[in-house]
Structures are given as C-alpha cells and as structure tokens.
Design brief:
This protein is of the alpha+beta class. Among the domains are: 62 residues, Winged helix-like DNA-binding domain superfamily/Winged helix DNA-binding domain (Arc Repressor Mutant, subunit A, Orthogonal Bundle), CATH 1.10.10; 75 residues, Ferrous iron transport protein A (FeoA) (SH3 type barrels), CATH 2.30.30. The chain is built from 9 helices and 8 strands. The strands form 2 sheets. The protein has a 6-stranded antiparallel beta sheet with strand order 3-8-4-5-6-7. Helix 1 crosses helix 4. The protein is globular, with a radius of gyration of 19 Å. 32% of the residues are buried.
C-alpha cells in the first residue's frame, strides 16, 4: 500500500495530468515536469510507479489517466476549486493567495468537509477563475480565445485556464485589472505581435499574446431577424 506521501504525490500528478488535458494539451513528461517544477527523471520514475498502481497508461509517450486515475484527479481538482471559492468568497483572499493555499487544502479535506463547503457556497459550478468544478452542474458555454475577438467587439470573460494560474504574476495582474469571469468589456486594439488592449470596468488593459490566446470569453448572441 502506498505511503501517505506517495498518495499525495500520486494525487498531485493526477491533478496535473487532468488540468493539462483540460487545457487541450498533449500530456507528456516534459509538460508535467514543467507544471510541477520537478526534474524529468523524477517524473519518469513517478509515471512508472503510477502505471504500476493502475493510475495512468502511457501510449507513444502520451500519458492518460485510467478510470481510477480520473477518479483521484477529479476528487483533488474538485476540492482545490471548492477551497479556492471558499478562500476568496468567504475569507476574502486574493486569487494568488487562494490558489496557493488551496494546494494544501486539497489534500486534507475529507468528504464531510467537502460537502459542507459545497453546501455553504450554494453548489458553485466553477472556481473563481471560471474553471469547472468536477461533479457540479457545470454547463460548457460557447467561448473563444480573447485573441480571436475582433476589434470593436464586446465580450464577457468566461474562464482563466489553469495554465495561466501557474504563470508568475498573471493571476495578480488579471484580478487587479478586473479581467475576471463575469466582467464585460470591449477589445479596442490588436497589435501584430498578438498583444491586445481591452476596456473593462472603464480601464484600458494591455494583455500580452501568451494570456490573450488562453483567456476564454463569450460573445453576444447575434440577433436573428
């Protein structure tokens, strides 16, 4: 039977694999190493152990969760995102603080506490950044990347993918400038290098190509004559 430390490590890896796939990325060892800030040899050894435990399959270098691995991944992701909601909505922590602290909470919440937090929050369907909470009543909206929005078009921020949560300083910048799920704005300029400028809450915000190609937004419905 795996030790407690091994179970936590397995959960962290399953979470990383789940989130990389959620962002439509092929899950290879290099991406896991980058996400978890761990050496590639260490990742290789852990994937070997996880395969032996029946948590992952490896096909042509691409890593996939098994049914058991998916159950573990969804549990830890659900608890992380519920914890983020509690830490921001109830305790008033900022996004970056909540993301960091939720990384601890996801491993210590039990079923009873998880259900209590979910009940207290009214059954939220997403984390503060708009990413779906596994097992909730989340419905996928029609979205496009912010970089694909035409100049002069209005939009509503829908989702800040996990990849941006791990980019230093990005969460702080987006929260400070109100680039948050539910906020509406207009794309005012687009530069050849992929940088865009948006007007949100009366302020003009420049967003570089790395974030602009990943932030997901919804567009107004086109009226039918």
């Amino acid at each position: 039977m795996p030790t407690q430390d091994a179970r936590i490590a397995f959960a962290d890896y399953c979470e990383a694999i789940f989130e990389l796939r959620e962002d439509d990325l092929d899950v290879i060892q290099a991406r896991i190493a980058e996400r978890l800030d761990i050496s590639r040899p260490a990742v290789s050894e852990m994937i070997r152990r996880m395969a032996a435990e029946g948590l992952v399959d490896v096909d042509g270098g691409v890593i996939q969760l098994t049914a058991d691995g998916l159950v573990l991944a969804e549990q830890v992701v659900r608890r992380h995102r519920l914890a983020e909601r509690f830490l921001t909505d109830v305790l008033g922590l900022n996004w970056a603080e909540a993301h960091h602290e939720a990384g601890r909470w996801e491993h210590v919440l039990n079923d009873k506490v998880e259900l209590a937090i979910n009940r207290l929050l009214g059954g939220p369907t997403t984390c503060p950044h708009g990413n779906p909470i596994p097992g909730s009543a989340y419905t996928e909206p029609d979205v496009v990347a912010l970089a694909e929005v035409e100049v002069g078009t209005s939009f509503t921020v829908t989702r800040i993918p996990e990849e941006l949560e791990f980019a230093p300083g990005v969460l702080e910048f987006l929260e400070e400038n109100q680039v948050k799920p539910g906020r509406s704005g207009e794309l005012t300029t687009a530069s050849p290098d992929g940088t865009v400028t948006v007007n949100i809450e009366g302020r003009h915000v420049g967003i570089g190509p790395f974030a602009a190609t990943r932030i997901l937004v919804s567009l107004p419905a086109v009226a039918v004559a």
